[in-house]
Design goal:
The complex is a heterodimer of chains A (about 110) and B (about 120).
Chain A lengths: L3 E4 L2 E5 L4 E7 L7 E6 L6 E6 L5 E4 L2 E6 L4 E6 L8 E9 L2 E4 L3 E6 L1
Parallel strand pairs in A: 2-11
Antiparallel strand pairs in A: 1-3, 3-8, 4-5, 4-9, 6-7, 7-8, 9-10, 9-11
Chain B lengths: L4 E3 L2 E4 L5 E6 L6 E7 L6 E7 L2 E5 L6 E5 L5 E5 L8 E8 L10 E2 L3 E5 L1
Classes of the chains: A mainly beta (about 110), B mainly beta (about 120).
């Protein structure tokens, strides 16, 4: 039932570098695209989200780029920090039915 | 404003047993969703409850059932447990408003181990 495909599975970035995670979806009924951050032993927490009427959203060091025609969206983490090391999930949502990608384990090396 | 709370945090069951997991929604939220997260995987949608009725269901068998109470708290019940049911079960609450999706607020989950 995977409707959202996420890549890469894991990512290692040096401190200060840019982390980029990509997702693609299939169902054009999705109308909300959030990114969640999850630390070990914790539930996912919302990081940033976008709706399909805009192509980009920036909050601090985090940016979502959204390409509606390609049905793709990505998360960019600028100036990555060791504290950003976590698992990141993209998701696509329709009527509060949220489907998640498989996750990307990000490691930021000091 | 209280967040989403789940209980128990950890539990161990044997194959064939039944389990009930509980969730208290964030204040003001009217919708509860349950997700199963296997180790190293993304959360998989089990079902959603809105106004005490099931409002959507993922690809899970009928032995996965739920309830939502008038105070918007919820239970997830799993009958005839199988080894593959071992996972982190996440509850998320949200405010369903019209036809626009909104933010899900997750609890920290209940980790179920089936032996």
């Amino acid at each position: 039932q995977q409707q959202v495909k996420q890549s890469p599975q894991s990512l290692i970035v040096q401190k200060g570098g840019i982390s980029i995670i990509n997702c693609a979806y299939e169902n054009t009924a999705f109308d909300y695209f959030p990114w969640y951050q999850q630390f070990p032993g914790k539930g996912p927490a919302l990081l940033i989200a976008i709706r399909p009427d805009v192509s980009e959203k920036k909050e601090g060091r985090f940016t979502i780029s959204f390409n509606k025609s390609a049905k793709q969206f990505s998360l960019h983490i600028m100036d990555s920090q060791p504290g950003d090391s976590a698992t990141y999930f993209c998701a696509a949502c329709n009527n509060n039915d949220m489907r998640f990608g498989a996750g990307t384990r990000l490691t930021v090396k000091p | 404003e209280t967040g989403v709370t789940q209980s128990p945090t950890h539990l161990i069951k044997t194959r064939g047993q039944q389990v009930t997991l509980r969730c208290s929604s964030q204040s003001g939220h009217n919708t509860v969703s349950w997700y199963q997260q296997a180790l190293g995987q993304g959360p998989q949608f089990i079902f959603q409850y809105y106004r005490e009725e099931e409002n959507g269901r993922g690809n899970f068998p009928p032995r996965f059932s739920g309830l939502q109470f008038p105070n918007y708290s919820s239970e997830l019940n799993v009958n005839a447990l199988e080894l593959d049911d071992s996972a982190l079960y996440l509850c998320a609450s949200s405010l369903l408003s019209g036809d626009r999706s909104g933010e899900l607020f997750f609890g920290e989950g209940s980790r179920l181990t089936v032996l």
